[in-house]
Write a structure and sequence with these properties.
Distance between the termini: 50 Å
CATH superfamily of the domain at 297-533: Glycoside hydrolase family 3 C-terminal domain
Strand order of the largest sheet: 12-18-17-16-13-15
Bound molecules: beta-D-glucopyranose
Largest sheet: 6 strands, mixed
CATH class of the domain at 297-533: Alpha Beta
Helix content: 25-40%
Strand content: 15-25%
Shape: globular
CATH topology of the domain at 297-533: Rossmann fold
Number of strands: 29
Length: about 675
């Protein structure tokens, strides 16, 4: 279909109507010209298709609930993220959805952000690579994605009004970078603007971001859609290069018409927007004939489980308390309601109706029975109104057991879209319960279900093990049990730093702003960039996660040892599994600028690889580095810049567990 000649045939009213949605989830069609309507749905960790509105409430279809983005990020596995993307696309196809509204790639500036469970990381490189993998997966099946929320939407508090005041360098290096990587690598069909203002200008009206940077600089060739209700002035947003305003709003047409009549928007601006928009509409339309009618629900559950298994992160494991050891444990106490009713996802527009939900306790019982271990269960100790009664039974169980596994976490009323957390600690009654149980049983392990970092300082020293389960999706229950019993080896690592307490976080003093602006005073020093540069202690560093086996790093080679700034550099090393169990290691490569004239973080992630090794097995891991690995954004030249001199290559198992290092000399003359 030749989009240009179609546009020529349209009336002005038809054109202007097309630039705003028809309702919440559909776009406008023009029957007489054969222009179809698109159907879009949330996203990102499952398909949330609204099937009906009953009593004013949306009724959504059941679908597979995959781990949320923060859990997927803990896998550090781009292939797996891509595979879940393919499954998501099949579900979209089967339900006639053209565009899935995800992934969310905003940076975790503060652990308080209510939507952190929906975002990947505090690190732009990791977030960008994972978002690219997600987009590639979904779009490989010709279902579109919407990379969101562009940009600097890092808090839910006052998100409709606040201006994120970010200096240009931080904007480029931290907040835009994941979008840049994903756009360049994976070409999303659409990008969704954010609600907030960026340096005073609404995301929906930000010409510099939407046109100059996204389109002209990065080569984005899809259309920009507004976040739902993020358009204040439809004419200004059109001029800024926002093609589709969602959802339906009767004002938008009127505003556009008036602006046209007043000469404030031109035919060219309207037609350019339509051309971009209709190109995607017909891409989606042409893909419809290839759609599957149904998908394999069991297979998708298995993929969700595979992802959950790789996301689970073993934070602490003193005395090898895990996996549960049948020679030491005859009686196992399981405590906490989340063992039977796991929290599998966060709240808000990302919340899907899971097709089914695995219970951790059921699977624990099944595995324990095979090992001849007796399991006793006590329900919640975290419901204050029942606390006395339940606490007593839980404490009695704890006393009698050889080992205790406590299930705690944040409900999705705590971690949700629309508002932020007010604390990063668990509820006081839950913290108290952990302390009481740990006092009665020294072999206590805590399983935490939450979407982002938690301050564990008051209880971490009293328990032997902590398994961070994130929000694992519908198959997480059995995945947790299989990790606890060593059926699988944990291989997740944190994609965000766990601070000791909220007061230690770099944005503590400026978050959430004064109701007008949120001042990003910490600039580029976000997450581990801040903690590592200023040598601040943390609870668990970025990239941390234990295994039931051990890995040895050796043979670092950097070739060439001296290079020009546009040369490709190869870094290779060997990793060996020196323990007794098969496992996967996430190898992380950081770069440190040794020669800089400007302030740079002490280290920055520039590569990662997940490698599976049998006991005794050794494999070579190779990274390719280009100019991006060494550049910073210079506000003097308004461009990326590399300085001549020495750079340190740091390879390790976490940002604070560097095992190998070497120097590369970069020449820019
Ligand atoms: C959210 C988006 C979401 C949209 C549609 C907005 O409130 O910020 O992420 O895709 O609603 O549900």
């Amino acid at each position: 279909m030749d989009v240009k000649s179609l546009i020529e045939k349209m009336t002005l009213d038809e054109k202007l109507h097309l630039l705003t949605g028809k309702n919440n989830w559909e776009t406008v069609s023009v029957e007489r010209l054969g222009i179809p309507s698109l159907f879009v749905s949330d996203g990102p960790n499952g398909l949330r298709k609204v099937a009906a509105i009953v009593d004013g409430k949306e009724v959504t279809l059941k679908s597979t609930c995959f781990p949320t983005a923060s859990a997927m990020a803990a896998t550090w596995n781009t292939e797996l993220v891509q595979e879940t993307g393919e499954c998501l696309a099949e579900e979209c196809q089967a339900e006639n959805v053209d565009i899935l509204l995800g992934p969310g790639v905003n940076i975790k500036r503060t652990p308080l952000c209510g939507r952190n469970f929906e975002y990947f990381s505090e690190d732009p490189y990791l977030a960008g690579e994972l978002a690219a993998a997600y987009i590639k997966g979904v779009q490989s099946k010709e279902v579109g994605t919407s990379l969101k929320h562009y940009a600097a939407n890092n808090q839910e508090y006052d998100r409709h009004h606040i201006s994120s005041e970010v200096d240009i360098r931080a904007l480029r290096e931290i907040y835009l970078k994941p979008f840049e990587i994903a756009v360049k690598k994976a070409k999303p069909w659409t990008v969704m603007c954010s609600y907030n203002r960026i340096n005073g200008v609404y995301g929906s009206e930000h010409k510099v971001l939407l046109d100059d940077i996204l389109r002209k600089e990065w080569g984005f060739d899809g259309f920009v859609v507004s976040d739902w209700g993020a358009v204040w002035d439809r004419a200004k947003s059109l001029k800024a290069s926002l093609e589709l305003a969602m959802p339906y709003n009767e004002n938008h047409f009127r505003v556009l018409k008036k602006a046209y009549e007043d000469g404030k928007i031109t035919d060219e601006e309207i037609d350019t927007a339509l051309e971009r928009y209709l190109t995607i509409v017909f891409r989606a339309y042409n893909a419809r004939c290839k759609r599957v009618k149904e998908y394999d629900k069991e297979k998708h559950h298995e993929v969700a489980k595979k992802a959950a298994l790789e996301a689970i992160t073993l934070l602490k494991n003193d005395d090898d308390i895990l996996p549960v050891n049948k020679s030491k444990v005859k009686k196992l106490a399981i405590i906490g309601e989340f063992a039977t009713m796991p929290v599998i996802q966060g709240g808000g527009s990302a919340h899907v109706q899971p097709a089914k939900v695995d219970s951790p306790l059921d699977k624990i019982k099944e595995l324990a029975q095979k090992e001849g271990i007796e399991v006793d269960y006590a329900i919640s100790i975290s419901i204050p109104s029942h606390s006395q009664y339940n606490q007593n039974s839980a404490l009695t169980l704890a006393e009698k057991a050889d080992q205790v596994i406590m299930f705690v976490g944040n409900r999705n009323t705590i971690e949700s879209e629309g508002y932020d957390r007010t604390s990063i600690r668990l509820a006081p009654d839950v913290e108290n319960a952990i302390l009481q149980v740990a006092r009665r049983n020294p072999n206590t392990v805590v399983v935490v279900q939450a979407g982002s970092a938690i301050d564990m300082s008051c209880w971490i020293g009293k328990v032997k093990g902590v398994l961070f389960a994130w929000y694992l999706g519908q198959a997480g229950g059995s995945a947790i049990a299989e990790i606890l019993f060593g059926v699988h080896n944990p291989c997740g690592k944190t994609a965000e730093t766990f601070p000791i307490c909220l007061e230690d976080t770099p944005s503590y003093e400026t978050y959430p702003g004064d109701g007008i602006v949120s001042w990003y005073k910490e600039s580029i020093m976000v997450g581990y960039r801040y903690y590592d540069t200023f040598e601040k202690p943390v609870l668990f560093p970025f990239g941390h996660g234990l295994s039931y086996t051990q890995f040895e790093y050796s043979d670092l080679k950097i070739t060439p040892g001296a290079a020009n700034e546009n040369d490709e550099i190869t870094v290779s090393l060997s990793v060996k599994n020196t323990g007794k169990m098969q496992g996967k290691e996430i190898v992380q490569l950081y770069v440190r600028d040794m020669c800089s004239h400007v302030l740079r973080p002490y280290k920055e992630l520039k590569g990662f690889a997940k490698v599976e090794l049998k006991p005794g097995e050794k494999k070579e891991v190779t990274f390719k580095l280009n100019r991006d690995a060494f550049a910073y954004y210079s506000t003097a030249v308004n461009d990326w810049h590399v300085e001549s001199g020495d750079y340190k290559i740091l390879v390790g198992s976490s940002s604070r567990d560097i095992r190998l290092s070497g120097i590369i000399k970069i020449n820019t003359d």
